[in-house]
Amino acid sequence: MCVVNAKEPISGGSRVQAKQVGTICVPESMVPEGKFGRVDEVIGQSVSIDVPTGAILTSSHLLTRSHAKPGTALVGVQLSDSSLLSMLRVGQRVSVVASGDDGPGIIAKDAVIRGLPHEGGGGLMSNDQSELVVVSTDEQSAARVATQNSQGQIGIVVR
Fold first, then answer.
1. Of 100, 84, 102, 98, which Cα lies nearest the Cα of 158?
2. CB contact at 8 A, 106 and 96
3. Which residue intervals define the domain SAF in the entry (predicted)?
4. Whether the predicted pLDDT of 40 surpasses 80
5. What are the E-state strand segments in the chain?
6. At 53, is the pLDDT very low, low, confident or very high (cuts 50, 70, 90)?
7. Which of 35, 36, 39 is nearest to 7 (CA)?
8. What integer pLDDT is reported at residue 121 of this predicted model?
9. What is the per-residue pLDDT across 64-81, written as a single tens digit (0 to 9) for each?
10. CATH placement of domain 2-63
11. Please, are residues 90 and 12 in contact by the beta-carbon 8 Å criterion?
């Protein structure tokens, strides 16, 4: 059975480019659930985690609504301190914090990074000036994050 695989490493949060993927034929017993059979099914899609060379791409590799499981949501975190970006990785668990009248507080605990901005565009966030990190969290926390983005400083604590 022929499946789509990575011809080179694909960084989490970036969009799949044609040069990064190809097809290989493997025994059906080795084909993972959620596989893709055609390259055009994945080109332009955002990758949710780092994909190593040779890996068979599956639906779990792509950033889709399926990453927002029932009771969870995807939300953008506009970082007030962009120096943290180099420490962050897709799939990493973090806490989202914000400053308030009573001092700093956690507004989303145990959030999972689903997308990061990349230099030169072409990533999940195509605006080169964007410092938006996409996380998945429970719906109430996502609402707090979205509200806080427009009201004050917000940051991420690496766990």
1. 84
2. yes
3. 3-62
4. yes
5. 2-6, 21-25, 72-78, 93-100, 103-115, 132-138, 154-158
6. very high
7. 39
8. 40
9. 655 556 778 888 888 767
10. 3.90.1210.10
11. yes
Domain ranges of the chain: 2-63, 72-158
Which 8-state DSSP code applies to residue 16?
P
pLDDT at res. 122:
41
According to DSSP H, which parts of 49-132 are helical? none
Long-range contacts of 22-30 (CB under 8 A, 24+ apart): 24/56, 25/1, 26/1, 26/56, 27/1, 28/1
Residue 111 is inside which H or E element, if any? strand 103-115
Q: Which residue is it, tokens 């994945």?
A: 42
- Give the model's pLDDT for residue 99: 84
Of the pLDDT bands very low, low, confident and very high (cuts 50, 70, 90), residue 2 is very high
For the record, the structure tokens of 93 come out as 């668990």
Handedness of CA 80, 81, 87, 93 (dihedral sign): negative
8 Å CB contact between 16 and 45: yes
Token pair 């565009």 in the structure block, residue: 121
**CA gyration radius for the chain?**
17
CB 117 within 8 A of CB 125: yes
Instruction: Return the DSSP state at 42.
Output: T
Model pTM score: 0.57
